[in-house]
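Researcher: For the annotation table, I need C-alpha cells for Fosfomycin resistance glutathione transferase. Please keep the output clean. Sequence:
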Amino acid sequence: MLTGLNHLTLAVSDVDRSLAFYHELLQLRVEATWDAGAYLSLPGLWLCLSLDPQRLSAPAVDYTHYAFSLGEVDFPHFVQRLKAANVQQWRDNRSEGASFYFLDPDGHKLEAHVGDLASRLAACRFKPYSGMRFYDES
C-alpha cells in the first residue's frame, strides 16, 4: 500500500541555475549536490534536480504543475520576491485561496498556494465544479 509521495524529480538543463532558483529564491534546503544533480528539501518534500540534456525549457501546454504551500502572511512577500527576480507567471489564480503560478528556469510549472485540501473542499461544497461529487466517510 502506498503511504505518501516519496520524492519529486525534475529534469533540468543547468543544475547550477536550477539549484540557485530552488535554494536561493524559493529557499529549499540543499541536502546534497553532485555533477549531474542535487537533492533539496522542505518539510515533507524531497526534491531531486537531475541533469537531462533532453530537457526542453518550454513549458508544457497542459495544466500539470507542482504546488508549494505557504502561509497567508508570507504570500505577498514571496510573490514580490519572485516578481523582483523576473520570474515568469504562467496563469492567473482562478481558485480558492491565494495562489501565484510561476515557471522555474526549465519551464516547470509551479504554484505557491495558501490553503489545503480541506479549504479547497469547503470552497467546492459552496461552489462545486461541474459534475462534482463528494465522497464523505460514513
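Researcher: And a one-line annotation?
Model: The mean pLDDT is 92.
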